Automatic annotation (TrEMBL):
Keyword Membrane attached: no
DTW domain residues: 1-183
The UniProt record lists the keyword tRNA processing: yes
One Gene Ontology biological process: tRNA processing
Protein's organism: Vibrio ishigakensis
Protein name according to UniProt: tRNA-uridine aminocarboxypropyltransferase
Signal peptide from the UniProt entry: none
EC number(s) recorded for this UniProt protein: 2.5.1.25
Keywords of the record: S-adenosyl-L-methionine, Transferase, tRNA processing
GO MF: tRNA-uridine aminocarboxypropyltransferase activity
Length: 188
C-alpha cells in the first residue's frame, strides 16, 4: 500500500522532507503533460519551500489569477535560459517573484513562444555550469537542471549555498528512494 502523501510503496519520504523558509515568491507554471509524469519535481519542490504557488499553463487561456499577480507585483521575472536575460545572481532583490516553467525543455520553449505575456516578462537565467544530479529522465543535456534543482539554485542565490543544503540533501535521498521504489524494493 502506498503512502497517501508521498505515493511511495516501499520507502516513505514524508518524515525526511524539509520545509524551508523562502525569502522570495516562486510560481511554478506547469505544462499539462508535466502533471501526468511520475518523474515531476515541481510538486516536490512546492512541498519543501514556502511561498510557492502553482498554475497550469494553457496556450489559449492564461491563468487570470497569475496575470493579476504579475501585474500587481511589479518585479516578476521569468527564469529561463536566454541570451536576453540577466544572470540570476546579479538580479536578486528582496521583493522577487520568479516564474519557472515546469516542463521538458521542448515544452518549456513552446510555452514561452506561444505566450506573449511570458515573453513580456524580464528574464533571468542561472549562471551555473553545474550539471544536474537528476537521473530520472533520459536525454538530459549538460547544464539543464530539473525544477527542484532550479528552486534550490534560486534559494542559494538569495541566501548562499549553505541555505540550499537541506533541499539538496533531501533531493539526493528522494532520487535514491524513487529508484528503489520503482524497482520494487526498500532502500537499505
Amino acid at each position: 500500500m502506498s503512502c497517501e502523501r508521498c505515493g511511495f510503496i516501499h520507502n516513505c519520504v514524508c518524515e525526511a522532507k524539509p520545509l524551508v523558509e523562502s525569502p522570495f515568491e516562486l510560481v511554478l507554471l506547469y505544462h499539462p503533460n508535466e502533471l501526468r509524469r511520475a518523474t515531476k519535481t515541481g510538486k516536490l519542490l512546492a512541498s519543501c519551500l514556502t511561498q510557492v504557488s502553482q498554475y497550469e499553463w494553457s496556450r489559449t487561456e492564461p491563468p487570470v489569477e497569475l496575470l493579476e499577480r504579475i501585474k500587481q507585483h511589479g518585479n516578476a521575472k521569468l527564469l529561463f535560459p536566454s541570451e536576453n536575460g540577466a544572470p540570476l545572481e546579479s538580479s536578486v532583490s528582496t521583493n522577487s517573484l520568479y516564474i519557472v516553467l515546469d516542463a521538458t525543455w521542448q515544452e518549456a520553449k513552446k510555452m514561452l513562444n506561444k505566450s506573449p505575456w511570458l515573453q513580456e516578462l524580464a528574464q533571468v537565467h542561472l549562471d551555473s555550469a553545474s550539471n544536474s544530479n537528476y537521473s530520472l529522465r533520459r536525454n538530459q543535456e549538460a547544464g539543464n537542471l530539473c525544477t527542484f534543482e532550479v528552486g534550490s539554485a534560486i534559494l542559494a542565490a538569495h541566501q548562499g549555498a549553505n541555505s540550499a543544503d537541506k533541499l539538496n540533501h533531501f533531493f539526493q535521498h528522494y532520487l535514491k528512494v524513487f529508484q528503489a521504489d520503482r524497482s520494487g524494493h526498500k532502500l537499505d
